């Protein structure tokens, strides 16, 4: 049993380490890609947002597919697809091809996000689950820490195309392990696939992203209205369906589950776009090379990686709401510090804020995930794992949507060049300030989620 557990955990940890390398290496390359294709400010935001939009659209769909057809099967298909779509993205001849590649990467990665936690939860008993989840989360943060530095080094040495392939060797190893060495398969309860709900979910997220990119135009307003209509129809359909793609009744009937998921949504909304903003700040406003910027960008995720496993283990013995709420508080303080950034700000204060943000998020993430997975029955592990991934992806997507909206209002269709740098500085300050404020409701939800039954 221990050998099977270790093999599954190692396979998941490899994938959890590789995908954030793909994300963070791309973020380091954004200024270079922007100059290569002569992109305006709003189009630059679509490079990370296309990936996030696809992942958010499909993660819950693949979570349901994994319960019906097999979690390992969906995971293996996802690993192979990540490799193929990454190569497609790296050889892009124009920005349209690159954005299509990023969207397809997001679809592929959604298969991994939907299955990683459910497979770990399937093989680990409750008393050891927090530590295993903490290891997976730690792998994600080590990937986020390694990605900027590796991506920056490869970018400065071989160009941005090679930087987009940094994660390929690790994904190949995970593919081999899952295909030839992990023999077991895990499924959830049988049921039907909710096609109508999937289409509505797809439409509501697509309309949200496109609305943000087109506000304040009339077309943007129409899309925003379309989003509200799709949201209403989706919720109504999900409450009436016998096998909905998202069982919203779980949110109504399980207070700890719903408030933990909402706290996660808010936390990722507040923090994800930081990576995008920090990359622009360091390379555009401070004039650092990709390698030096990547080194500094690694500070926050490295801090998360160092502390996530221990905090995950602590959540098996200490109330997750206490740990998570303290984490949100630390993160909010760090974001408030970052909201005062300017091109003249010393890097020492900037680095301190990144370390504080890393401490805060590591206090939040593993305990919160443990609370979510421990609040549901075994039959709902797939749905809960999909919910964990969905709230993360929706939060990350919302974070980028907010920045895209602010980018559209503050900078508009200008290129990111010397003449627009004062506007870029204003955008960064506004984004971090808003992020600090929205942490407050997240902390309230986290504090009043209810008590987790700690294992004996």
Primary descriptors:
456 residues; mainly alpha; Growth Hormone, Chain: A
The CATH topology assignment of the largest domain is: Growth Hormone, Chain: A
Q: SSE order, as H and E?
A: HHHHHHHHHHHHHHHHHHH
> Low-confidence parts, pLDDT < 50 over ≥5 residues?
none
Task: Specify the overall morphology.
Answer: globular
The biggest sheet amounts to: none
Gross CATH architecture of the largest domain: Up-down Bundle
Distance between the termini: 21 Å
- Overall pLDDT, averaged? 83
Using only C-alpha atoms, the radius of gyration works out to 20 Å
User: Helix count?
Assistant: 19
- The structural class is mainly alpha
- CATH-defined superfamily of the largest domain: MFS general substrate transporter like domains
Helical fraction equals over 70%
**What's the CATH class of the largest domain, please?**
Mainly Alpha
Strand fraction? under 5%
What's the domain count?
2
The total beta strand count reads 0
Structure, described:
The chain is mainly α and 456 residues long. Helices cover 81% and strands 0% of the residues. It contains 19 helices and no strands. The longest helix is centred in the N-terminal third of the chain and has 36 residues, at 2-37. The protein is globular, with a radius of gyration of 20 Å. It starts with a helix and ends in a 9-residue tail after the last helix. The relative contact order is 0.16. The mean pLDDT is 83.
């Amino acid at each position: 049993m221990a050998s099977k557990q270790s093999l599954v955990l190692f396979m998941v940890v490899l994938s959890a380490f590789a995908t954030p390398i793909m994300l963070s290496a791309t973020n380091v390359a954004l200024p270079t890609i922007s100059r290569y294709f002569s992109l305006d400010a709003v189009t630059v935001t679509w490079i990370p947002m296309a990936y996030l939009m696809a992942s958010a659209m499909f993660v819950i769909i693949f979570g349901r597919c994994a319960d019906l057809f097999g979690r390992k099967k969906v995971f293996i298909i996802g690993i192979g697809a990540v490799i193929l779509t990454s190569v497609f993205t790296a050889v892009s001849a124009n920005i349209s091809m690159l954005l299509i590649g990023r969207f397809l990467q997001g679809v592929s990665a959604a298969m991994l996000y939907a299955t990683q936690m459910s497979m770990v939860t399937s093989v680990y008993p409750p008393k050891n689950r927090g530590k295993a989840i903490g290891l997976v989360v730690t792998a994600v943060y080590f990937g986020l820490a390694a990605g900027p530095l590796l991506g920056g080094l490869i970018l400065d040495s071989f160009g941005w195309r090679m930087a987009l392939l940094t994660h390929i060797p690790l994904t190949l190893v995970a593919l081999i392990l899952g295909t030839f060495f992990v023999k077991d398969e895990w499924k959830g309860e049988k049921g039907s696939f909710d096609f109508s709900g999937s289409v509505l979910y797809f439409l509501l997220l697509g309309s949200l992203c496109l609305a943000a990119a087109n506000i304040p135009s009339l077309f943007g307003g129409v899309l925003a209205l379309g989003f509200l209509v799709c949201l209403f129809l989706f919720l109504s359909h999900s409450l009436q369906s016998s096998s909905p793609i998202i069982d919203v009744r779980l949110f109504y009937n399980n207070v700890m589950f719903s408030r933990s998921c909402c706290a996660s949504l808010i936390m990722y909304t507040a923090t994800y776009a930081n990576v995008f903003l920090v990359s622009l700040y360091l390379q555009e406003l401070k004039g650092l090379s990709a390698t030096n910027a990547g080194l500094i960008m690694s500070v926050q995720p490295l801090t998360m990686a160092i502390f996530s496993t221990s905090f995950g283990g602590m959540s098996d013995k200490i109330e997750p709401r206490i740990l998570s709420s303290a984490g949100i508080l630390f993160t909010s303080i760090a974001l408030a510090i970052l909201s005062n950034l300017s091109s003249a700000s010393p890097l020492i204060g900037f680095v301190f804020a990144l370390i504080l943000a890393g401490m805060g998020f590591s206090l939040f993430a593993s305990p919160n995930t443990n609370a979510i997975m421990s609040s549901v029955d075994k039959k709902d592990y797939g749905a809960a794992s999909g919910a964990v991934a969905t709230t993360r992806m929706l939060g990350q997507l919302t974070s980028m949507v907010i920045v895209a909206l602010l980018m559209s209002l503050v900078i508009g269709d200008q290129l990111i060049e010397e003449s627009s740098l004062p506007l870029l500085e204003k955008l960064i300050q506004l984004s971090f300030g808003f992020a600090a404020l929205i942490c407050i409701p997240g902390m309230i939800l986290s504090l009043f989620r209810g008590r987790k039954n700690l294992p004996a």
